[in-house]
Design goal:
The protein has about 120 residues and is mainly alpha-helical. It has helices at about 5-20, 30-70, 75-85, 90-100, 105-115. It has one domain: c-terminal domain of poly(a) binding protein (Orthogonal Bundle), CATH 1.10.1900. The N and C termini lie far apart (about 85 Å).
């Protein structure tokens, strides 16, 4: 059986790994064994971070709605309860976006809900 030389394949894999770990500090972007471990951890953190981002944004929306509702003279919990009872299908993301981009519309929604 013929001898297989893997130098080119290994070099290609190592270069690919070093591209992935570019920006990591110290030996984490230079030494192949350490870089591989660093890359695996980075991927795990990135996966977990994508899940955390959803929680973080939801809490940000809630804070924005709560503060804007206080200005309008209604608490967050009462506002959300009246929205649900009034069959207003605006979710927290849309409400928070209204607060940032179109404050008058948010005020109209709150006033409409207050009368319920």
């Amino acid at each position: 059986m013929a001898r297989v030389k893997r130098g080119v394949v290994s070099k290609r894999r190592h270069n690919k790994l070093q591209d992935l770990t570019k920006g990591h500090r110290g030996s984490r972007n230079r030494l192949i064994r350490v870089a591989k471990e660093s890359s695996l951890h980075a991927d795990a953190y990135a996966f977990h971070g994508r899940k955390l981002r959803k929680r973080d944004f939801r809490s940000l929306w809630i804070v924005r709605i709560s503060e804007a509702a206080k200005i309008e003279g209604i608490s967050y919990s009462v506002l959300m309860n009246k929205l649900k009872k009034g069959n207003v299908t605006l979710d927290r993301k849309i409400l928070a976006d209204l607060i940032v981009s179109d404050r008058e519309t948010f005020t109209k929604v709150v006033n409409a809900v207050k009368s319920l």
